[in-house]
Design goal:
2 domains, 159 residues
């Protein structure tokens, strides 16, 4: 997802390219490209040591900071909808928790007993409960992340 924002911040910072692609020009967005590139490099370093068996874990502090930084990038370059597309897997994970919780509360109130949509939330744990190996879930979510990134980049020409 950071690669998508490397491209988008570069385009937003370049007056000629942004005019050609009909993207709002943001003066000074070149510095955001450098910051996104640094986040990309740090993420690669993390992923190198996080592959199975993981030697390093990120936790909420790191993941929330990265998500917040990407959210700020999207707002600064006037592309918040691209964030939803590029982060499709993360959006699906968050929505699965909200759907599970909301449906459980609704059915408990209306039927007396809470029912579930998924075996367990968030979504990746549902697939593990269905019998997928952790490496299968991770690999398939990586593939979905790449597809979401390609769809987000394709929005450049759909304007």
């Amino acid at each position: 997802m950071t690669t998508v924002f490397i491209v988008f911040t570069y385009i937003a910072g370049n007056a000629e390219i942004s005019k050609y692609l009909n993207v709002p020009h943001v003066p000074g967005a070149g510095e955001l490209t450098v910051f996104c590139s640094a986040m990309f490099g740090a993420s690669l370093g993390f992923l190198w040591y996080n592959c199975h068996p993981a030697q390093v874990f990120m936790g909420d502090t790191g993941s929330l900071a990265l998500g917040g930084a990407l959210g700020i990038m999207a707002v600064l370059i006037h592309q918040p909808f691209v964030l939803l597309i590029a982060g499709g897997v993360f959006v699906a994970e968050a929505c699965s928790v909200m759907m599970q919780r909301g449906w459980f509360k609704y059915t408990k109130r209306t039927r007396g007993q809470g029912q579930r949509i998924f075996l367990v939330a968030p979504l990746h744990h549902h697939f593990e409960k269905k019998g997928w190996y952790e490496s299968q879930v991770v690999t398939r979510f990586y593939i979905l992340c790449i597809l979401c990134a390609l769809v987000a980049l394709s929005t450049l020409k759909l304007r």
